[in-house]
């Protein structure tokens, strides 16, 4: 089971990718377009052109792992019209995305920090 909170960072690649790409092709996107190191303790999230599939790539200490999910009816909410090709997500935002919620329209309650 993929434990999302185990990772140091979560990076979403905003443009769609050709889903014929597997581990090597997605690593090429991570290095060449996202300018990140695929061997870090990061999750890298990609979507298909129709936004009904996602792939999550990560280094699993002794090899790469690729997680794949296909939706039968719905589409994933995906950010549009942003200048950056990559977006860093919080754990809760990725959980929202995987559960069908739009993390870019949802805002968590403001964190309050009181002092005595």
- Please tell me what the overall shape is: globular
Structural class per helix/strand content? alpha+beta
Task: For the largest sheet, list the strands in their spatial order.
Answer: 4-3-2-1-5
Number of domains: 1
Q: Tell me what portion of residues adopts beta-strand conformation.
A: 25-35%
The number of helical segments is 2
The proportion of residues forming helix, as a percent range, comes to: 10-25%
- As a whole number of angstroms, the C-alpha radius of gyration is 15 Å
Please give the number of β-strands. Answer: 5
Q: State the end-to-end CA separation.
A: 42 Å
- Stretches where pLDDT falls below 50 for ≥5 residues? none
Compute the average pLDDT.
89
N-to-C order of helices and strands = EHEEEEH
Query: Sheet bearing the most strands, described?
Result: 5 strands, mixed
Task: Please characterize this protein's 3D structure.
The protein has 116 residues and is of the alpha+beta class. The chain has one domain. 16% of the residues lie in helices and 25% in strands. The protein contains 2 helices and 5 strands. The protein has helices spanning 23-32, 91-98, and strands spanning 9-13, 42-47, 53-59, 64-70, 86-89. It has a 5-stranded mixed β-sheet. Strand 1, helix 1 and strand 2 (42-47) form a beta-alpha-beta unit. The model has no long low-confidence stretch (mean pLDDT 89).
